Amino acid sequence: YVCARCPQQRIGQAQFALSMPLSADNRQKNLSGIAWMIASMAGFAIEDAFLKTVTKQVPVGQVLMMFGFVGLCVFAFMARRVRVSLFQAQVFTRHMLFRAIFEFFGRLFFLLALALTPISSATAILQAAPLFVVLGARIFLGEKVDFKTWMAILVGLAGVLIVLRPSADDFSALSLLAVIGTLGLVGRDLFSRTAPPSLTKEVLGFYGFSTMVVAGFCYAIWEGRAFVPLQLAQIFMIASAVVAGVFAYIALMTAMRTGSIGAVTPYRYSRLLCGISIGVF
């Protein structure tokens, strides 16, 4: 225990702790977080592929509402199975409100970017997310980020641009949709990191997918397009996107709350490898 009246002693012990190598327990947490992050990115890549396809045939608002509704039902069922209350006092806080706002803009605008812009430009912009997440964790959460992590992120971003080779023709004013979507998803992830432990992944998932229903409803009113009856192939694509999205959401929440942000965030670039694999398949 450190005496509260000795700030110099507290600072000295904190500096000593930061200079110590990672313990075996922290290494294991980081490895577990990395594995969950890679699994999450694979799930999101599959989700993107299905949503990109179905939004060519079905209005974006309708897709987002159906996707969110089925997803929230899945998370409600999971919460009931583990006997976790969805209506806790900590849900109705300013912290969760900000998380919902970022989720709203992140999901809506990135789905619009997938539907309205070339997937190469939307993917290239999304790959800036690791840089923003680590930067936000350093500024707002006070997490220590070493030089190797910064270099890994910057080299990874350069590699993404080399592989995708987005040209000036790929980017337009509509590319701002992907920028806003990316910033929204970054904010969502940072607020997920600081969410109280009592708000489990089932609770966060329920309210995250509930936000998608609201986002889809608002966009459907703004767009003014009539909903269309779904064919069997479209139902299959939306259902497959939900399965992949629920898994990816759970994996992402687990990754962001397991390892350190600096350790797990660079592995977001695995989303590109998964996306290329899906494209080849």
Description:
The chain has helices spanning 7-19, 24-54, 60-81, 94-116, 119-126, 129-140, 147-164, 175-193, 201-223, 232-256, 261-264, 270-280. The model is unreliable at 1-5 and 7-20 (pLDDT under 50). With 281 residues, the chain is mainly α. It is built from 12 helices and no strands.
Which secondary structure elements does this structure contain, and how are they paired or packed?
Layout: H1 7-19, H2 24-54, H3 60-81, H4 94-116, H5 119-126, H6 129-140, H7 147-164, H8 175-193, H9 201-223, H10 232-256, H11 261-264, H12 270-280
Helix pairs in contact: 2-10, 2-12, 3-9, 3-10, 4-8, 4-9, 5-7, 5-8, 6-8, 9-10
Q: What fraction of the residues are assigned to beta strands by DSSP?
A: under 5%
Major sheet size, sense and barrel closure: none
Overall pLDDT confidence: 82
The level of helicity is over 70%
Uncertain spans, ≥5 residues at pLDDT below 50?
A: 1-5, 7-20
Order of secondary-structure elements: HHHHHHHHHHHH
State the shape. globular
**Helix count?**
12
Taking the alpha carbons of the first and last residues, their distance comes to 57 Å
Give a count of the beta strands, DSSP E runs of length 2 or more.
0
Label the structural class: mainly alpha
Overall radius of gyration: 20 Å
Name its key features.
single chain, 281 residues, mainly alpha, globular
Q: Would you kindly provide a brief summary of this structure?
A:
The protein has 281 residues and is mainly alpha-helical. 74% of the residues lie in helices and 0% in strands. It has helices at 7-19, 24-54, 60-81, 94-116, 119-126, 129-140, 147-164, 175-193, 201-223, 232-256, 261-264, 270-280.
